[in-house]
Amino acid sequence: MFSKSKDTARNSETLVDSTSSSINTNSVWRMMIVDDEPDIHTVTEMALQNVEFEGRKLEFIHAYSGEEAKALIVKEPNIALILLDVVMETRHAGLDVARFVREDAKNSLVRIVLRTGQPGDAPEESCFINYDINDYKEKTELDRKRLFTTVLASVRAYRDLMKIEQDRKYLEQNKLGLERVISASSSLFETRSLEKFASGILQQITSVLFIDSESYLMQSNMATALADDPEHWKIVASSSPSNASGKVSPENISYYIEQACKTKKSSFIDQHFVGYFEARNGKSTIIFVENCGDLDPLSKQLLDLFSMNASIAFENINLEKEITDGQQELILRLGEVLEGRSKETGNHVRRLAHLSYLLAKTIGLSEDEATHIKLASPMHDMGKIAIPDAILMKPGKLSEEEFEQMKFHAEAGEQILSTSKRPLLMSAAVIAGQHHERFDGTGYPKQLKGDEIHLYARIVAIADVFDALMHKRCYKEPWELDDALEVIKQGRGTHFDPELVDAFLGVIPEAVNILHRYEDRPNR
Q1: For labelling, which of 8, 88, 279, 413 has a CA lying 20 to 30 Å from the CA of 485?
Q2: Cβ-based neighbours of 279, under 8 Å, separated by 6 or more
């Protein structure tokens, strides 16, 4: 035995700790010696100083009391083995430490070997039954050879447990990653706006990968887009707002666009992710994420899976957009035909659609609902198809009998459109049938009043009257803005919903901009 005082041992160990703090714990097996006898620490370390397992040496951590051991167990990570004395500051201090490790620190991986010089105070059988320890040795039997085999067996067991734990965490991470992909993909499939979809993809990629890199979503503007011509590409969305909706910088990413277009696949190039999607019309979309770093295989699999789902969602968005755009165009063309038949010049239905959308958004309706009104409102006068030309085109004031016939267009429009089960046409039927009802119940055709009139029809009624007043008709010249607004104000609570009037009066500058943007085209 070598003689060394406890203070000297502590000072010496302080030096060891200060230098070992920089040691990579993955390159050593960390072993804690817990004993109130400094000589035990010295002899144990000397006996094991040259021990290696799988190319990794032992790193020693020293504690001289049960309380010190508890503090170190919380502070020091990745301890493989604790050689634990039983009798220290109390006769059961070591047993208290064993219980603390398992129950308080929740550490089930570290191997605990009880080492006692007084087995009568802690009988072996009792210790194994009452405490979650892994081995029990009397100090008198623990010579160098047995110490070596005990430590090696414990380290090997710790290694195997760590492998199991890593596999468990990997599977858990895989599960969580898949859940993130499913959640992210679901939100993408719910998105109908191309712009929101593009921004959503970038947000979800950073969420799936837990990265904070610059990212871009770019689209080609032609089916035969060439990567070496940046004019064919446009940034639709960017994680940096200053880069959104701008031209692609060829110095930065044109090379990666070219590679993606050649392979027509998503790939990792120079630690950048380049996601490639191609729609049925031949136009391409590329997602570019800068400096993803050296992603682990799991992250790459998650990104590939998400990209595949995003590709499907992108295709659906494009297809739905084509259908919606075509549907809107047909509706507008039909509305224009009806206007032409009544000698109204071409853009009334376009202005009405945008004015209705503006008012719907102003009162807090969702984007989807406001767009729904925008698409349905151009069919408000569908029933005019049933009105004779002589009445529709009459330049002067209608007689009482003629006006009664004209009023029929509301019922006729509702009858024509209500036979459809499509939500858009059902809404259009309501608007067509009710947009001439008045808030005080004096309108036509059913004398509905107040909330009996559908909100969509109440919105369109204000937009329709305002636009009609501001533009020339076969029976009148356009009015000045102040005069038109006075009619709207006087109709508050009688002709129009008062709350809608107040909301509309608050967005007059935007309404006037719509009138200017869609000025009437001259008749030919």
Answers
A1: 413
A2: 285, 314, 315, 318
